[in-house]
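STRUCTURE REQUEST FORM
Protein name: NAD-dependent epimerase/dehydratase family protein
Source organism: Pedobacter petrophilus
Requested output: structure tokens
Priority: standard
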Amino acid sequence: MENIALVVGTSGITGSNLAEKLISKGWKTYGLARNPDINVNGLDPVAADLLNIDSLRTALTDVKPTHVYITTWMRNDTEAENIRVNGLMVRNILDVLSEKKTVQHVALVTGLKHYLGPFEAYASAGFLPETPLREEHPRLNIENFYYAQEDEVYTAAQRDGFSWSIHRPHTVIGKAVGNAMNMGTTLATYATICKENGRKFIWPGSAAQWNGLSDVTDARVLAEHLIWASTTEAAKNEAFNVVNGDVFRWSRLWHKIADYFKVEAVGFEGEIHPLQKEMEHDADLWKEIAQKYGLKENSLNRLASAWHTDLDLGRPIEVMTNMAKSRKLGFTVFQDTEETFFELFDQLREVKLIP
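Status: completed
Returned output:
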């Protein structure tokens, strides 16, 4: 039987990389987004609003997927609203697809906020789990939209009989424009701005993150993991952490990134310097940089998500994940994290998103 994928959120870092990987493996692949203007050869775009079930029914009339990959979410002002909106998006897509009776597996991408708490209480006192993070850690006794998304998948799976997998990456590093959580490109734009006007490349985060061990998730590794779990019998109906497989210290990587961009690095010197504040007046400067170097995107807000990078780098504890569960079941893909960042920077230059 032919594998037919529906990637929900195909305009994001995770969704676009997944679509490319599926197509390279010969899958018929549909990509759903509100504005699916995606430069992925071989992708069948589907324009729909996940909050409008009639829009979904119309857009998916002729789409009968065997595998569904949910890689999207929508940021709202409160966690209660995050729960309502993001739970509804998952429910709507699975309700529409239920009528087709073709879905064999649903994969949902969430993240480490499963363990650390939502944005409103992110890694705050009282919500600091033991690291390395393991999948068996219980849910926190606090509102969290990731839990709502999971519960929608579990409910639909019980109703419709498909298998599922939950994927919890650490910070995802990969190319995307207009993405709400985009550390790699955020750091690239910040370093570019520092180089252009002679500013120092100042570490924005905490002492714990500067000195501690960390890991991240290359979008290409996450794509492989999603496909693996959705096609491996032993991996079905399980939740997984997914990271590159190595660990690093920002105290080394920050200087390596500075060397790449030929800027002067400043490490942790006793206090946090939020990147959102450091870059709050740089939008006009970025327009000048884009014009000067002929870049394709002159809106800094579509490239940088300083608020989210601050959340990650400002944590009061070191954060890394345990991958033993995936390894035991046969997932062996590994990626060097330094290469993840430098390959991304090379790619951003190649497509004229940074000079």
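Reviewer notes: The chain has a mean pLDDT of 94. The chain is about 40% helix and 15% strand.
Form closed.
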